[in-house]
Amino acid sequence: MRFLLELTPPVSFFIVSAITTLFGLGGLYLVRRKYSAEVLKENHEVAAIIFNAFGLFYGVLVAFVVFVTWNGYDEATKNLQLEASEALDIFHNAAAFPDPSKKIIQQGVRDYLAAVYNDEVPKMSEGDLSVYSGGAHTPLRILFSQVDTNSIPNRELYAESLRCLNNLAQFRRMRIFAGNDTVPPVIWLVLLVGGVFAVSYTFFFGMKNISAQYLITSSLTVMLTSILFLIYVLDHPFTGTSRVSLEPLREAIATTQEA
Description:
mainly alpha
């Protein structure tokens, strides 16, 4: 389903909703073809109680998963902003270093930002980047280890740069972790099975106006499908057209290039 993330949200939501609605209406058609409205009405009282209880439990589960994935998406956005901010702090701190340390560190920051934007983010969208890989941070860390600390008069500023370097590594790992699937398969199984049951329940209510029942089934199917697909989108914050904005990285790259 990853290809759907590359489409614009209205198109992807329409495709998913249209497919599931066709299946839902097909199921309703088969049930009503076999059972008349009079037969189905006999079970209305019991079916309504079960449907209400099931809807309550399923609604709580869906709401919780939406909250968790939305919170993860929001955290991914903040971590990316903080990562770009820490990189800029290192860049500006290095301006007080004597040459050649100044030029080496600042160029290392430029390379780091370019690697994240051009290499790591595309790999994250495909799930090809490990949380514990050194990646773009390793060359920058090596550059700091090669700096002659005796040539830097402001030792406090150098220590602050090292702190920023460690923070940069932390925010990078959090960014990569956020790019991985955070909703376990077992939860997806429960969500999907529950969604199928919820829609299927509407098949067994005997409404005289069959057009109204088709409309109710369609509305419920579209709503559930949209919510489940929303969870899928939020669970992939660095993939597709709805991904986290990369503007902080672009602004950081532009700032370092202007200096």
